[in-house]
Amino acid sequence: LKMNRKGEDGSIKEPIKLRFKQLKDGNQSIYLDCYVNGIREYKFLNLYLRQDTSRENKMWNKEQLRLANAIKAQYIIDIQNREFGFKDRNRTRKLNFLTYCEDMAADLYTVSKLLGHSNIRTTQIYAKIVDESKRKAVNLIPKL
User: Fold this and answer.
1) pTM assigned to the model
2) I need a surface site. Which of 28, 44, 80, 139 has the fewest CB within 10 A?
């Protein structure tokens, strides 16, 4: 991984950039443009920006961009881990990421692909663990 690549202006180039594709309905699709070790790959996130015609749409767009940036950061961490030979077996990190995605209302299929699961059932197991943890936390709150 060449994380220290520098642009003409001396700034460090990112291996992954958020990009936007204009759709026919006026909305934009968010995707990642990944350029690592000389290989370019595009990862479509199933996240969309709506036209800024209302406050609701602006809030939607803000959340979609926050989720897209979290996904981008996760990919960069995964790239660095592979580069340095770390095997990702950290279940807690995956659970935290899944919780964040659920809070941002990402669909389970997208989350499954982002976690690298080949089968959506694996993601459903993680989601069940997260739901169970939330229930336990709520039950710890004293009744008023």
Assistant:
1) 0.57
2) 139
